[in-house]
Design goal:
The complex is a heterodimer of chains A (206) and B (539). With 206 residues, chain A is α+β, with helices and mostly antiparallel strands. Chain A has helices spanning 7-81, 90-103, 146-157; strands spanning 108-113, 117-118, 120-121, 130-143, 166-173, 186-199. Chain A is built from 3 helices and 6 strands; from the N terminus they run H-H-E-E-E-E-H-E-E. The radius of gyration of chain B is 66 Å and the shape is rod-shaped. Classes of the chains: A alpha+beta (206), B alpha+beta (539).
Chain lengths: 206, 539
């Protein structure tokens, strides 16, 4: 062995030593390269698995949304037609009330529309895509017959100006002072919310 | 490729072998121009591992026993002994031969050496000068034990007779397959003497010499194995006559070669090709060469081993990397399946998105809008429905006159709508005075700036009415009010209670009666019902 590790032996074997070093480096490179490739592929595989899961979830959501929207499309179209997403048009409301008052021959009609506000729901429920806004409307009416009042309220609820869920109403009979005279026989006080929706992502009006 | 040199006193034979087969043979004279011819020949050959057999007369053999000691001590002891016995030659060797059966059970040793180093040195210097990778220098006599073993000549006392290039005959004595003695005799035939007679004469002398050294017992017989070519066998065998102490075995070298697998068989009786072939079958350790002489061979072997190690390491690296890559390829099918599934899912998703109605707004807007409508607006109660149901019940009670109704849609079943009592026109003569009870609390929703939007699960109404009954018929009035409440309770999801009776009979209250002289025929009693309609969980 001393001949191998002598200067002369080393001179003779330098090519072999260099080959050994190159082979060792290449082997380490190949091994580490293979391991890197395996790790890379494993990571890619895990990522692909996650992408697949996400795609499945997205597809399921899309299916659900499609089904929901198909069911809801007709309803939504009706709601849009009724101005649910169009904001308050108070002048239209004033004209509507005046028109209904005339049609139902109300003796007196006082009303009060409060400033619009975000409507609060029980349990703090919120809708991610829309803001629910409401204006509190109070009515005080006098009529000859309670049917006139009920007709007024029903026709108001069926109007295409928005939604008016009547939540409070008090009807009181008024004593007639004269049986012959045309005078109000019933007094009514009602309150409801005038509800409109606003799309949260909709562009703000200029 | 291996290169073998076989040196006798007069000839040097070069034998080249490829694998287990001899492919070239060339013979040189030891003296004169033979050496220079050989050097030129050697210089033209490619550098291959070279094994050097020595089969010359100047080789001495000594038997000895040494104490049985450990490896390092034994090496030192043998080195010292060799230096003492063969102090004039560097070409010396000690062959261990087992242990004595008795006494201290010492180790048996055969010392051998080329006693005339000048016979070998020029060749060694030539090999060194040409940097021939010498692997070893071997004693042909010592190595020839393999001949007996491979030819199954298992005798207690055997004398192997071989012929060497340059007309010499070597006789090597083996006792129980251990070499004890060897001598080389030039084949120098006298006038009229045949080879057979020469062999018989020389072997007899050898027997006598060995016998004089007390190698044989009274009953021992020396088996003389003569390795000759078939062409010489006819001349030799007739001259070999057995007797009690000696028996001859003429071994045909062609048959022996066939048995050993040596092809082609030697063309004469010289044994160098047989030796070379046996060495290829059973390589031996170096006998005579010093480490200095072996350095080119050692360097060459080291180079080979380094290159082999490099190849092995590279192969291991390829295997290591390949193992990882192969493992990564194991999931290729799964990857393709995933990609296909992803593509299919994306295609279906795009199709769904295209087919989803948008109506100018986002899907979430549509969903929220419809959810709000379905949850909060659609199930919200309507006053007209409530009043319509109550009116049908009241129609069966013509004596009851409704004076006021206060109705709320709420999520609180205990809600109490506001109401202000209206006095009857013909109040009864007996009435119960309230004890300063607080008026019904105003609706809490109206008192708040931003009331919570009620889902309208419950419709709660306070209904005030009057009932005209005969004067002082309070019992009838109370009964009718209760009957009306009971009938209203028959409506789906509805409960009705009398909260203010035509005459409050509670003992805790003060009651007051006032009867005038004029007694009216009837009276109008007042009562209040609380009606609650449970709509079963809207919104």
């Amino acid at each position: 062995m001393s001949a191998v590790f002598s200067p002369e032996g080393f001179r003779h074997l330098r090519g072999s030593w260099a080959l050994l070093a190159l082979a060792a480096a290449a082997a380490i490179g190949l091994g580490l390269g293979g391991k890197w490739y395996l790790d890379h592929e494993t990571r890619e595989r895990a990522t692909a698995g996650k992408r697949l899961e996400q795609a499945r979830a997205r597809l399921e959501t899309a299916r659900r949304e499609r089904d929901n929207l198909r069911e809801s499309a007709d309803i939504f179209r009706t709601l849009v037609d009724r101005g649910l997403l169009q904001g308050e048009r108070r002048l239209d409301m004033v004209e509507l009330i005046n028109g209904l008052r005339t049609r139902h021959q109300l003796f007196a009609l006082d009303y009060e529309i409060a400033p619009q506000r975000p409507l609060q729901f029980a349990g703090g429920r919120v809708f991610p895509a829309v803001d629910v806004l409401a204006s509190r409307v109070k009515l005080r009416m006098r009529a000859l017959h309670e049917g006139d009042v009920l007709g007024f309220v029903e026709e108001l609820a069926a109007s295409r100006q928005g939604f008016f869920p009547l939540d409070r109403c008090a009807l009181r009979r008024l004593e007639a002072t004269s049986l012959e005279a045309m005078q109000p026989r019933v007094e009514v006080e009602c309150a409801f919310e005038w509800i409109t929706l606003k799309e949260k992502n909709a562009a703000q009006p200029g | 490729m291996l290169h073998f040199l076989y040196l006798t006193n007069t000839r040097l034979v070069s034998v080249r072998a490829q694998g287990k087969r001899i492919v070239a043979r060339r013979e040189f004279a030891v003296s004169g121009v033979g050496a220079s011819e050989f050097e030129r020949y050697l210089a033209e050959l490619e550098q291959v591992p070279t094994h050097f057999f020595v089969d010359i007369a100047d080789e001495d053999f000594r038997l000895d026993t040494i104490p049985h000691v450990g490896g390092r001590d034994r090496a030192a002891l043998l080195g010292r002994k060799l230096a003492q016995i063969f102090r004039n030659t560097p070409y010396r060797h000690a062959e261990m031969q087992g242990r004595e059966a008795e006494g201290r059970r010492d180790d048996r040793v055969l010392y051998t050496a080329v006693t005339n180093p000048e016979a070998l040195r020029p060749w060694c210097e030539m090999l060194d000068r040409l940097q021939v990778p010498l692997e070893g220098i071997y004693s042909a006599a010592v190595f020839s034990a393999v001949v007996l073993q491979e030819l199954d000549l298992d005798f207690a006392d055997a004398l192997l007779v071989t012929f060497t290039p340059g007309d010499a005959m070597r006789q090597t004595y083996f006792k129980n397959n251990e070499i004890k003695f060897s001598r080389l005799t030039p084949v120098d035939l006298e006038e009229g003497q045949g080879l057979g007679a020469f062999v018989a004469e020389e072997t007899m002398r050898t027997w006598q010499y060995l016998d004089s050294l007390r190698h044989f017992g009274a009953d021992d017989r020396l088996e003389v194995c003569v390795l000759v070519h078939s062409s010489d066998r006819a001349l030799v065998q007739p001259q070999l006559r057995d007797f009690a102490q000696m028996q001859y075995h003429a071994l045909d070298i062609e048959q022996a070669s066939m048995k050993l697998g040596l092809k082609p068989a030697p063309l004469d009786s010289t044994a160098e090709e047989v030796m070379v072939h046996l060495f290829l079958l059973r390589p031996s350790a170096n006998h005579f060469a010093s480490p200095e002489l072996l350095r080119h061979g050692a360097v060459r072997s080291a180079g080979n081993r380094i290159r082999q190690a490099a190849v092995a390491i590279l192969a291991a690296g390829v295997a290591w990397g390949g193992f990882h890559v192969a493992r990564s390829f194991q999931g290729v099918e799964a990857d393709e399946r995933i990609e296909q599934q992803l593509a299919a899912i994306n295609t279906e998703h795009e199709s769904i998105v295209r087919s989803t109605p948008s109506l100018g707004v986002g899907g979430s807007t549509m969903r929220d809008t419809v959810a709000f409508y379905n949850g909060s607006i659609r199930p919200f109660p309507a006053l007209s429905e409530f009043l319509g149901a109550v009116s049908k019940v009241l129609a069966a009670h013509p004596g009851v006159r409704l004076t006021q109704v206060s109705w709320v849609a709420t999520d609180d079943a205990k809600a109490m709508p506001p109401i202000q009592s209206i006095a009857s026109r013909d109040a009864p003569a007996v009435k119960t005075l309230s004890k300063g009870e607080p008026p019904p609390a105003p609706g809490s929703a109206e008192s708040q700036a931003n009331p919570v939007f009620a889902g309208g699960r419950y419709e709660v109404a306070l209904m005030e009415a009057t009932l005209r009954v005969p004067a002082e018929d309070f019992r009838g009035a109370i009964g009718q009010a209760q009957k009306l409440a009971d009938e209203l309770s028959q409506l789906p999801g509805t409960t009705a209670d009398v909260v203010e009776s035509p005459l409050d009979l509670r003992s805790s209250l003060q009651m007051q009666g006032r009867h005038d002289a004029a007694k009216p025929a009837t009276m109008e009693t007042r009562f209040v019902l609380r009606i609650v309609r449970d709509r079963g969980g809207a919104a």
